[in-house]
Amino acid sequence: MKDNQTQTQSLVSATTTTSTLQHLKEIAALIDTKEVRRIARAVRLTVGLRRKLSGSVISSFLDFALVPGSEAHTRLSCFVPKGDDMEVDTASSSTSQAPPPPPPPTELEIYCYFILLLFLIDQKKYNEAKVCSSASIARLKNVNRRTVDVIASKLYFYYSLSYELTDDLAAIRSTLLALHHSATLRHDELGQETLLNLLLRNYLHYSLYDQAEKLRSKAPRFEAHSNQQFCRYLFYLGKIQTIQLEYTDAKESLLQAARKAPIASLGFRIQCNKWAIIVRLLLGEIPERSIFTQKGMEKPLRPYFELTSAVRIGDLELFGNVQEKFSKTFAKDRTHNLIVRLRHNVIRTALRNISVSYSSISLQDVAQKLRLDSVADAESIVAKAIRDGAIEATIDHKNGLMVSKETGDIYSTKEPQTAFNSRIAFCLNMHNEAVRALRYPPNTHKEKENEEKRREKKQQEEELAKYMAEEDDDF
Amino acid sequence: MDPQLTEVSQQFERFKAAFARKDYDTCSDLLSQLKVLLTKFTSLPPLFESSPNAAQELTIARDIYEHAVVLSVKTEDQDAFERDFFQLKPYYVDARNRLPPSAQENLILGLNLLRLLVQNRIAEFHTELELLSSATLDNPCIKHAVELEQSFMEGAYNRVLSARQTAPDATYVYFMDLLAKTIRDEIAGCSEKAYDYVSISDARQMLLFSSDQELLNYVNEEHPEWEVKDGSVVFQKAKETAPCKEIPSLQLINQTLSYARELERIV
């Protein structure tokens, strides 16, 4: 054997190569079953192998899966970088011994694209990934099989990712729209879900909130198939709603997105929390301190924590300082415009503090405390705050006074009743959603669940958790 | 030169001449002819086909729509403004890489922001704002509109009114005047809630009227529920926060029944 002549180092790499290749062959067998559930599992298993992929593994897998010399094979293998001679040698020697395989099923061909893309992106060969993903999308257009959908939705994702990494997202917008169109016609719901999110991401990347909202409100909606996609959808929806001043809905969407996201996806949850904090501040709520001390979030949320303190105290000067100090972070998070909107909440809070502390205070003093330029400004600002219900007071124009009203006994009104009701409604809703979210694989009641199956299931769940963690790294 | 392009540019010259003469009727006629002519250019949005004259065609089309927007301000036609602005927008957003930037761009974007503010379409205002880069936000035209919105939200109406003097361009005055009317209504709404009564002269000042008679007319037309007596305006306050004496029985029954139903589903 040639292996004997090589150094130990390449021997080790050769053994890992063979074991990875063996894994891949097992996965290929899963795909060959042409069962949607098995294919989904194959995709999950592949992501687990991701770190071990190398040029030689890919090329030998391509030789195994596709007929060498066929059109698909040449098209794909030109993307694989050549390893050193030794490894290519082993790869070719193993294929020469194998009998010529029958023409591969379409699923397997598409899967080859997928694994190649994973490899190219991990190797940071973004331009090759772009070409490869475009080729895969072109190939997918002619395929209409439900069994391919799972792999296809992954391909869409990496297609968009490779363009995003090369900062060329606008170029693929019309292709994505066309793909979404055909996914809808083919009732490929997973594809629709993925593509809609990619489109929203595409629009939001360029701050085209108007277009994003128009697409979102008109695209068909259905029960979510994938939790990750649903989280993303909620996050994008929350962002759109925030920009369009629908703060209450936005808060709901963002908090739900943060809650539903898997624990491992720290980056995504930080993003959700940043937006949720701003929305809550805009609504006049103060987020609890525990939000800022969540594991791993303390540092990234620091600017937002200081912002919250400034709003809570109602100190315009401190608010200005925080805005100045973290202006780079806010510009990077693209939350700068939202924070400008917060100024008016700072004034509100300060006014509320004043009206609680004093039973009557001259407008001159109010202007001074709020650091406003003139008494006239103070008067109209107070008037507006009264109309919007932020403070309970009246203005005595003649004497230039703001007179706070006695706060009535809140328990004599319907207020507690409504608050209680909305909380109960929230809990009931949460329960209903949890029940609805339980998924039952088809025909499980027929199969007897023996020990082996249960083990397999447990293993599958672990894979899923791991896979989610991997997935979110990409985000 | 392409005959179509020549025709358009000649027509456009005539339009500009009429525009300088302030002959706005002729302008509108010429403009509709121009718009029809523009449809023959395939290099314009949304097609963006490449043709030898693409850059020239795009530039002249953008120029025409910019004039159309300004014309609609002069003729005080807000609907036309909206239409023309939407036709113009692709030239600023999608054709950004194909054309050198227009000198008018910030002026027109600022005008549009102001229009949205006047029409109280704050959500759209913020959506438009997101599209602007931080460099654009520092432009005086845009900054003017953004600061107006902030003062408006805070309730510092005096600042909004005094901003009329600092308007960056003559075209802004039309919208600023409209804004003054919106603000009067806002002030009236706020005063109603904030004051028990104010003297007529103070009310006149606050609501920006030049004579008592105008104020009285305004009160009669817009707020008949206000009472004018003893030299002051008395706002009838709806006492909505009075403690409720009645138990809202129907509502309570409904709520309790729905809890029961939900609980049954859980158990």
UniProtKB/TrEMBL annotation, chain A:
It comes from Camelina sativa (False flax). Pfam families: PCI (PF01399), Rpn3_C (PF08375), TPR_PSMD3_N (PF25573). Residues 231-409 form the PCI domain. SUPFAM superfamilies: Winged helix' DNA-binding domain. Keywords: Proteasome. The lineage of its organism: Eukaryota, Viridiplantae, Streptophyta, Embryophyta, Tracheophyta. This is 26S proteasome non-ATPase regulatory subunit 3 homolog B-like. Belongs to the proteasome subunit S3 family. Residues 444-469 have a biased composition (Basic and acidic residues). It comes from the Eukaryota. Residues 440-475 are annotated as: Disordered. PANTHER family: 26S PROTEASOME NON-ATPASE REGULATORY SUBUNIT 3, 26S PROTEASOME NON-ATPASE REGULATORY SUBUNIT 3/COP9 SIGNALOSOME COMPLEX SUBUNIT 3. PROSITE patterns: PCI. The gene is LOC104728992. InterPro entries: CSN3 (IPR050756), PCI_dom (IPR000717), PSMD3_C (IPR013586), TPR_PSMD3_N (IPR057985), WH_DNA-bd_sf (IPR036390). SMART domains: PAM (SM00753), PINT (SM00088).
UniProtKB/TrEMBL annotation, chain B:
One of its GO terms (cellular component) is proteasome complex. Coiled coil: none annotated. InterPro entries: 26S_Psome_Rpn12, CSN8_PSD8_EIF3K, PCI_dom. Keywords: Proteasome. Pfam families: CSN8_PSD8_EIF3K. It comes from the Eukaryota. The keyword Ribosomal protein does not apply. Residues 79-251 form the PCI domain. The keyword Nucleotide-binding does not apply. Belongs to the proteasome subunit S14 family. This is 26S proteasome non-ATPase regulatory subunit 8 homolog A.
